[in-house]
Backbone:
């Protein structure tokens, strides 16, 4: 047989197509307080907090008006929600989006619903619709728009805070924009933590900074002295630097949201955010 006519061995005829992931409908796995140990050891926890911290690093020192490029995949997301070739993932990913807008029976909303939206974005990253270089757009374009919608719903329907700790909590409804918003302000040339309780400073800078936008919304929704209706935030205004504020808020988020059974009992787990223990390496 001539050299050009030689047949390749059977095992190397052609590369096998990549296996299609087995997507599943996410379900609750945290039914009792002892189950919280499974959550803290889970791949879902590691992936979720890793996603939050990656975005935290991405927006550091940047204004909401910062110019950024958005990948082609992200543009496709806006146009078609999820591209056709990822249709199998839609039922799983959609669960987190549905969970992110509050409870229609209780008409309430809180950090657990906010976490569901962050999980939705995390899943879009895991299936490749969003990419690492979209991290600024994820916070400034997508998550910030989500905040705008939720604030409108909170005002329109007078939604009850879900699991609010009242004056001793950070905020009735949100937590993540305070984390990412404080990261934006790290090393700011003149705005310090003490300035966010200054009405003039907030009014002049809220369009650029997520943290200040949150403060403005609180003052619109609540009456009375800030130190009384938002004591925890008032205390934070005494912290000397935004980097310390940011680090403290990350610790607080883990302790007061991600490690609280009343919040995590509603979190759902699937193939993208699985309950199985985190895999090393």
Residues:
């Amino acid at each position: 047989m001539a050299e050009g006519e030689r047949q390749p061995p059977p095992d190397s005829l052609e590369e096998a197509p990549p296996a299609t992931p087995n997507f599943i409908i996410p379900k609750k796995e945290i039914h009792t307080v002892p189950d919280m140990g499974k959550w803290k050891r889970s791949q879902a926890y590691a992936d979720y907090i890793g996603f939050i911290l990656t975005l935290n690093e991405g927006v550091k020192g940047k204004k909401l008006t910062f110019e950024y490029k958005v990948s082609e995949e992200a543009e496709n997301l806006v146009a078609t929600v999820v591209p056709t070739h990822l249709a199998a993932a839609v039922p799983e990913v959609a669960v987190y989006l549905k969970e992110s807008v509050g409870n229609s029976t209780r008409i309430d909303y809180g950090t657990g619903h906010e976490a569901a939206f962050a999980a939705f974005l995390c899943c879009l990253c895991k299936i490749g619709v969003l990419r690492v270089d979209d991290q600024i757009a994820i916070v400034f374009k997508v998550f910030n728009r989500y905040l705008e919608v939720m604030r409108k719903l909170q005002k329109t329907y007078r939604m009850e805070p879900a699991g609010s700790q009242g004056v001793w909590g950070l905020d009735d409804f949100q937590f993540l924009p305070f984390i990412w918003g404080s990261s934006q302000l790290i090393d700011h040339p003149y705005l310090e933590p003490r300035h966010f309780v200054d009405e003039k400073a907030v009014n002049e800078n809220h369009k650029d900074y997520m943290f200040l936008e949150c403060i403005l919304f609180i003052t619109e929704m609540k009456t009375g002295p800030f130190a009384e209706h938002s004591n925890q935030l008032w205390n934070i205004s005494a912290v000397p630097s935004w980097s310390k504020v940011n680090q403290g808020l990350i610790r607080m988020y883990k302790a007061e949201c991600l490690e609280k059974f009343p919040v995590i009992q509603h979190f759902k787990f699937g193939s993208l955010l699985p309950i199985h223990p985190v895999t090393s390496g």
The chain has one domain: 29-269.
